Amino acid sequence: MIKNKEDLKQYLKMDKSALGKEYKRPHFFGDDIWKFEIILRKHEYYVNTNSNFFLRKLYSFLHKKYGLKLGFSIPCNVVGAGLRINHFGLIVINENAKIGEWCDIHQGVNIGQNIEKNSVPMIGDNVWIGPGVKIFGKIEIGNNTMIGANTVVCKSFPEGNCRIAGNPARIISNEPNYYVRK
């Protein structure tokens, strides 16, 4: 969670690294995903510090505007630093879910609650989530996990360090995510 300016700088630096950007700022044309992530992090900062009412409202508006433009519904304080969104397209994440650092998300992903209130996923660090994945319910996904395309995850895989796929999800390999970040 971003609690101060140093945290904000660290999150922005890790997000930039995850996206593979080597230049200082997003280009005026393009880099829409990077712009969205910057807006998301600044919105989180102003919400968490409860400072500057005007900037909090501005970043709330921009967060919603860019989210609608790109098809993202990613609330504040859900995803850890080092977020990598690979493509435009529908990504929906429940506001109560928790996702660790260095998460790599593709399009068509839905991370949501089950029937019971607050029965939402807890996803560890360095998790690769393929296109079309659905993760729902009070489950835990461990660190260094790869989730294959179109997988439906409705049970926990807390041990991590594996690759899961299928409907319903099952372990297909005990090899960890191929690009473990520190």
UniProtKB/TrEMBL annotation:
Species of origin: Drancourtella massiliensis
Keyword Protein transport among record annotations: no
Record keywords: Acyltransferase, Transferase
Protein family per UniProt: Belongs to the transferase hexapeptide repeat family.
InterPro entries: Hexapep, LbH_SAT, Trimer_LpxA-like_sf
Protein name (Swiss-Prot/TrEMBL): Serine acetyltransferase
